[in-house]
Design goal:
This protein is of the alpha/beta class. It has 3 domains: 6-319, 2-Layer Sandwich (Aconitase, domain 3); 336-357 and 367-390 and 435-497, Aconitase, domain 3 (2-Layer Sandwich), CATH 3.30.499; 554-752, Aconitase, domain 4 (Alpha-Beta Barrel). Strands 22-25-26-27-30-29-28 form a 7-stranded mixed beta barrel. Strands 6-5-2-3-4-21 form a 6-stranded mixed beta sheet, sandwiched between helices. A 5-stranded parallel beta sheet has the order 16-15-14-17-18, with helices on one face. The radius of gyration is 25 Å and the shape is globular. Belongs to the aconitase/IPM isomerase family. InterPro entries: Acnase/IPM_dHydase_lsu_aba_1/3, Acoase/IPM_deHydtase_lsu_aba, Aconitase/3IPM_dehydase_swvl, Aconitase/IPM_isomerase, Aconitase_4Fe-4S_BS, Aconitase_4Fe-4S_dom, Aconitase_dom2, Aconitase_mito-like.
């Protein structure tokens, strides 16, 4: 088999152990696995020294880059401005986000190829020109494809999708980033990251019954919340870890993104080796075996983990039960045994209307076969399936193999619809047919996110996250409070029957198979290819550099919006129908903050324009300020920018002349994206100062002439009645990031200093 990135992999493993040994000499202590991978990927080996976790910024040299089609457009438009002949590291583009799930794979894929042809042609031509691997529409979801083809133990990867940490199941430090960060790596520049804190998670025991790897991370989300992993790597270890399959580990690492974690990873073990071999990468497995000693933490770390990790969690797998997390946030963790009480107490709609399985989180062969074992019981035991079932396979290899092994036909026998190998409902690409798209209802998914409006655009859809097997069981029962471990169901004859525990195979007995993967390998010598962008296109638009800071004070800026409550990147830049504008900054900016709640009136996309005292869409008001040469300010609460890595949520306000985002706290990726685009991301030194911001305020930022690391800035609020409030704001900018701000963006700075 032709191994992708073969030269890079041989070079990597030839020197990896030697690099780790050098790190141990300098550190003079045992190392965690995360430390081995991080320090082995320093951009400059001469900069090897002990870095302070959670404090020091470090320059890294990742091995590869992965991009999904929605974010790849903006990343590659930025790369085209960098003046490079080809990418500096192996890279791939995956067309998985733009396919609308509606009627089934055949119809939906055909429609997507037609409606998105302009974007697919752009991405294909850019990939050919700059030596990038191209996975076309229908080839599969980025993270499942990466796991099957590119992930390798000990490696480091960045990806323009927040669930890039999926590859941690293979032992990679794989980090979700914005497009500007990806461009740094693609152009051979240092990739900067604050040295993460380390959270060790010791797994003991073994999962049993209806419990699955998905329930492990759903349980941990309940412990740590969506902020608990911010600026940290979760490193799993222990005897329990060895009992989890590689794809199960990938599921756990995938949803570590919901903790706000930099990434998660598992050490190399026999399961990793077997997965590499079963997916045709025996050569990589052999190289990993030779480096196995440094593909896990040192023994002393496992013997005394509290000494080497910043925090240690203990999780007994035998005590984990199936979970339903939600609604509206992935950290609202509920063991299924508690739903009978919790559901009615919280006025949840208890009828399950749709069960959705698959996605980048849970679409392995093992996931599909375990879920199918539950479906077969409905057939064999004559149990009616109460809810609609939708299946999204993770890759063409999974789909093809599952079809060959009659797994998909089992789903189809109970009326399930098999959608394209794409993200679909998981990212709002779902044209749901329902009697009322505003009606309160419940759905259960094996996806990773369940923010309000995310799946189907309905703010009253209560989405709950569970494992594929639990999702199927609840779809069969048609109720949220059905516990398959204890509760019976009525068959069509009125008899009470019970579901047996799910069972499935980790790997297909006949091996994986695929017809056409939908892959175009990187080509050499393609510089003569012209990447054409129609100037009149509504989908694609060449980027113009943002203006540099003029050195003047930021004074008397109106408040564009004061956001109340949770504000994810979905709220800032919605997906769904807006995905088609991901390559056109001007057009997509029309969705700016349309999902955010205005603290002054409790409404969405309805804010006051201080120029004429009328209420309008957020983007309309921002455009008005911009047209008058006025910058504006966004004020927000905790964990602003949680969720997807989409840098559009930073580029849109930048394009519409928002100068400052002032929040109680930021999600890691979004804060970096704001910095990369030349904006000020500031936090309240005293969070109570959020309450001082009024609707008609004029905001000034004082002290920029002395902008420096660890030095606070001062915010003044000039109220409509003439009174003034003054308070301090914090920031996390280092010297380089301050230069990005001054240059107008990180890309501007890089071009100016080539």
């Amino acid at each position: 088999m032709n191994i992708p990135d073969n030269d890079m992999l041989h070079s990597f493993y030839a020197s990896y152990s030697e690099r780790v040994e050098r790190v141990k000499e300098v550190m003079k202590r045992p190392l965690t696995y995360a430390e081995k991978v991080l320090y082995a990927h320093l951009y400059d080996a001469a900069e090897l020294k002990p870095y302070r976790r959670g404090v020091d910024y470090v320059n890294f040299r990742p091995d590869r880059v992965a991009m999904q089609d929605a974010t790849a457009q903006m990343a590659l438009l930025q790369f085209m401005n960098a003046g490079k002949e080809q990418v500096a590291v192996p890279a791939s583009v995956h067309c998985d986000h733009l396919i609308m799930a509606e009627l089934g794979a055949g119809h939906d894929l055909s429609k997507a190829r037609s409606s998105n042809r302009e974007v697919y042609d752009f991405l294909k031509s850019v990939s050919r020109k700059y030596h990038i691997g191209f996975w076309g529409p229908g080839a599969g979801i980025i993270h499942q494809v990466v796991l099957e083809n590119y992930a390798f133990p000990g490696g480091m990867m960045v990806g323009t999708d927040s669930h890039t940490p999926n590859a941690g199941g293979m032992g990679m430090v794989a980090v979700g980033v914005g497009g500007a960060d990806a461009v740094d790596v693609l152009t051979g520049q240092p990739w900067e990251l604050k040295m993460p804190r380390l959270i060790g998670v010791r797994l003991t025991g073994k999962l049993s019954g209806w419990a699955s790897p998905k329930d492990v991370i759903l349980h941990i989300l309940g412990l740590l919340t969506v902020k608990g992993g911010t600026n940290a790597i979760l490193e799993y270890f222990g005897e329990g870890a060895k009992s989890v399959s590689t794809t199960g580990k990938a599921t756990i690492c995938n949803m570590g993104a919901e903790l706000g974690a930099t990434c998660s990873l598992f050490p190399y073990d026999d399961n990793t080796d077997e997965y590499l071999c079963k997916t045709g990468r025996e050569e990589i497995a052999a190289m990993a075996r030779r480096n196995a000693r440094h593909l896990s933490a040192d023994a002393a770390v496992y013997a005394d983990p509290e000494k080497y990790y910043d925090e240690v969690l203990e999780v007994e797998l035998s005590k984990i039960e199936p979970h339903l997390n939600g609604p509206f946030t992935p950290d609202a963790a509920t063991p299924i045994s508690q739903m009978k009480a919790k559901g009615p107490a919280n006025d949840y709609p208890m009828k399950v209307e749709v069960g959705l399985i698959g996605s980048c989180t849970n679409s392995s062969y093992q996931d599909m076969s375990r879920a199918a074992s539950v479906v077969r019981q409905a057939i064999e035991k004559n149990i009616p399936v109460k809810a609609e079932l939708i299946v999204n396979p993770g890759s063409e290899q999974i789909r093809y193999t599952a079809e060959r092994d009659c797994i998909l036909s089992d789903f189809e026998k109970v009326g399930a619809t098999v959608m394209a190998n794409a993200c679909g409902p998981c990212i709002g690409q779902w044209k749901r047919h329902t009697d009322d798209n505003q009606r309160k209802n419940a759905i259960v998914t094996s996806f990773n996110r369940n923010f309000r409006r995310r799946a189907d655009g309905n703010p009253n859809t209560y989405a709950f996250i569970g494992s594929p097997e639990l999702t199927v069981a609840l779809a069969i029962a048609g109720r949220l409070d059905f516990n398959p471990a204890t509760d019976g169901l009525l068959d069509r004859d009125g008899n009470t029957v019970f579901l047996d525990e799910p069972s499935g195979l980790t790997f297909p007995p006949k091996g994986f198979a695929v017809g056409d993967k939908g892959f175009i390998a990187p080509a050499e010598g393609q510089q003569d290819i012209e990447v054409a962008i129609d100037p009149s296109s509504e989908r694609l638009q060449k980027l113009e550099p943002f203006e540099a800071w003029n050195g003047e004070a930021l004074e008397d800026m109106p408040v564009l919006i004061k956001v109340q409550g949770k504000c994810t990147t979905d709220h800032i830049s919605m997906a769904g129908p807006w995905l088609k504008y991901r390559g056109h900054l001007q057009n997509i900016s029309d969705n700016l903050l349309m999902g955010a709640v205005n603290a002054f009136n409790g409404e969405t996309d309805y804010v006051k324009d201080q120029l004429d005292a009328t209420y309008k869409k957020v983007s309309t008001v921002a455009k008005d300020y911009k047209a008058h040469g006025i910058g504006s300010v966004v004020v927000a609460e905790e964990n602003y920018g949680e969720g997807s890595s989409r840098e559009h949520a930073a580029m849109e306000p930048r394009y519409l002349n928002v100068k400052v985002v002032l929040a109680k706290s930021f999600a890691r990726i979004h804060e970096t994206n704001l910095k990369k685009q030349g904006m000020l991301a500031l936090t309240f030194a005293d969070k109570a100062d959020y309450d001082k911001v009024q609707e008609d305020d004029k905001v000034s930022v004082l002290g920029l002439e002395h902008f420096a690391p660890n030095e606070q800035l001062v915010i003044t609020l000039r109220h409509a009645d003439g009174t003034v409030d003054r308070f301090k704001a914090n920031h996390t900018y280092n010297e380089l990031q301050i230069e990005w701000f001054k240059a107008g963006s990180a890309l501007n700075y890089s071009k100016n200093n080539r």
